[in-house]
Design goal:
- By secondary structure, the protein is of the alpha+beta class.
- Among the domains are: about 30 residues; about 70 residues.
- The strands form two sheets. Strands 2-1-3 form a three-stranded antiparallel sheet. A two-stranded antiparallel ribbon has the order 4-5.
- The longest helix has about 35 residues.
Length: about 140
Amino acid sequence: MKSLTEQIASLSLIIVLSFLFTHSALAEKATDIYKWVDKDGRVHYAARPGDNTAKKLHLGSNIFHDQEKQKQITGARKQEEERAKLCKDSKETLEKYKKAPFLYRYDEETKQKVRLNEEEGKETFLQAEKDISYWCNPPKSEK
């Protein structure tokens, strides 16, 4: 039979090993993260899967890279939307210029509208067309 000291040491070792095993099992469970994309295209991360498309990730996986990639995609989408709005606005402005009998500018000194001369009118139309070209036809590097 083992001495009391040996029994205490064995029991202590069993307790420590049990604690370490339980702690590592819980820690492993806690690192499980699920990722899925909902029907609206939003990315979700949670401790439990949100639907049947959820993928199980682990801490240290690409989760942080995935979040950064999602931010880049969202930023690019916002830029596209802004460019489309500015394209539309530029086209509407040109149409207003075409329909107007005269074009005016605001004179800061006199605080009044001043009718544009022929040369200024041509320059204004040219600038409106440049705006349309710029906003409606993004450079290849932006696509």
